[in-house]
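Entry type: protein chain
Record version: 2
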Amino acid sequence: MEKASMAMSGSIPSTLSLAVSKIAGLSTNSFKITPTTGAGTSGAGQQIRVLLPTAGFIHLPSTKLYFSVTTTVNGTRLPKFTSSLIQRVQVLCGGVTISAGNPVHGIVESIKNIVRDEEKCLASEHPEMVLGLDYLGQIFDYGATGAQGTGAPESYSTGGANGAGIFSVDLGDFFQSLHPNYIDLALMAQIEVVLTVAENSVLSSVAGTFDNGAAANSFSRDGAGAATFNIVNPVCIANMVSFLDSSYPMALRQRILDQGYVQYHFNEHITFQQSFNGNSRFNLAAASLNKLHTVFTLAGSLTQGGAVPIAGSACAVGSSAPSACSYPWNGAATLTTGVAGAATIGVAGGVQRYQGKFQQFKLPATAPAQSVANNNDGSAFDYSAGAATPVELQYRINSTQVPNMFMSPQQVCEVTKYSNGLKEFKGIKSYIEFLYNKFVMSYRFNLVTNDYDTPTISGLDSRNANSMIEVVSNGANTDLTNFNSLIVADITKLVRVGDGRQLETIA
């Protein structure tokens, strides 16, 4: 009896539970929704507007926009992630804004990819910038010696099955994080999603007609900046469920009668951008500040140019000297000392990897310098020159140090992993890649939870204090003139739906 009472004194782990729930009379279906605006072709700065149905239960995370993309200018490449093609995602309900989105949606999604280690679909979300083979299996011509000799752009026809709607994109914070993630559309006024297409600066254009790595046409050197793109034939696919048994819909309506509303919550990301002179600051009043993320981008990163090499990957194929090699750590190509007749000092190998200029999040250090020459001989990746006076970083909230010490770059790496519940950055292959390409400084203010926990709102409540938040640097090696800071505040937002489709949002 003692053993039995001990077993029943606490909750049973899910791995031992025999409990089964049943919902009878459930049916599912998927619907194609044609946008009311932008159904044909939409270019930079234009809007795509989608109206959702007014009845039924919709599964928000799986509701996405599908489309094709066309581009102009030989050598043009699409950026990593289809989300980079979207500048802002807004969600309105009966004309009332639920989620305003942010003006740098694609950049925020790139940050989220780093800190969440999200698995992007290789087939439909364009998770890597392509160089030699596009998503339809077609081979790009690198240069004049190729069969075509055109250096064709990465562009996807919408004709037939070859490129018709091969890409997809999520519909922003509200759709991805709302809890619970099924909502009864009949309880609310009609929901409209407004997607603003990104600027052409998200594209990479090479310095010349071709992208064969030669001095005049290097894939990693700025082109003319004339490349453009269009999102073509977008459609929204909504996944819906309905209940023959009305028990659950009736329970929702009874909750509204008893409590006055049903409540949902989601995470929204608010951004603050400014030039970085060693200190960046902003005010924030939020019911629950969950995390802060900060990245540093080089001035001019929002202008179109060549792709940025991923440090630690490989050298450009066909290099004959170190000066023609974009990133020499793990080999690739056949390298020489750069002196005529000199012996070979490297062998072919490695995988070339790139990202867009706007996606380069870099440690704000004075040395090494950022230049074409330094990119190509590897010195742009060498941070050892400033080791004696390293960059240190810290958050401050109303002058309170968070954490209570300045963090070295390595400490930033560890605190960022803790703040995002990570043991490792699966998408970062080396420390130099973290410093040069994917430097993110995160700090957590809410409890660490997992997907199986009951949702808990536990972040910092700054509504009464209207908190002053700062990012502060220390160390003589900090670059105080060439960087911009982007600070992303992850907050919890409440949505209350009342009788008569009344809506209230609490941020």
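Comment: Residues 35 and 50 are 5 Å apart (CA to CA).
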